[in-house]
Amino acid sequence: MTESRPGTVDDHLELPGCRFLREGYAADEVDEFVDGLRRSLRHDPPDMAPYEVADARFKVSRWGRRYELRAVDDYLESAQAALRERHGEHAVAEVEGRVADERHVSTLWIYLVGLLLVAVVVVFALTQL
After folding, report:
1. pLDDT-based confidence at 122, cuts 50/70/90?
2. Is the peptide bond before 45 cis (omega within 30 degrees of 0)?
3. Do the Cβ atoms of 19 and 61 come closer than 8 Å?
């Protein structure tokens, strides 16, 4: 990561894409967040707090356009440091991010598969009578 001057992040950084079938962050989500981050850093003080970067979460996938996990994490660490420096003595500079409890992804499909299996067993049992 190259930083042009203290309290900034590289505006022209191109994050590396993932190799075939490797896990990576969804590029659209990362691009949207990074664009907001860069817009925020143009203000003094920035509109975004360091904890907001720490709390950022992106979908991880093996398909589609995605960025390498490590490269995105490194970039976000440098952005968080830049935000801390730019906020200076303001109260938000030292506020730590809070990682939300890990939640299971939607489990509706599990229930639907279970329901389908029960229906198959019931149909099979009824046809055997």
Report:
1. very high
2. yes
3. no
Give me the pLDDT at residue 124, please. 93
Q: Please provide residue 73's backbone torsions phi and psi, each rounded to the nearest 5 degrees.
A: -60, -45
Sheet arrangement for strand 66-68: 60-61, 24-26, 66-68
| Residue 113, both tokens | 């598969």
Q: Which helix (H) or strand (E) is 115 found in, with range?
A: helix 108-127
| DSSP states along 73-87 | HHHHHHHHHHHHHHH
Helical packing angle, 27-41 and 69-87, nearest 10° = 20
Q: Retrieve residue 42's tokens.
A: 């143009």
For 120, list phi and psi in degrees, rounded to 5. Answer: -65, -45
Q: pLDDT digits over 54-113, tens only?
A: 889 999 988 899 999 999 999 999 988 888 888 776 656 555 555 555 554 566 778 888
CA dist., res. 14 & res. 11, Å (int): 9
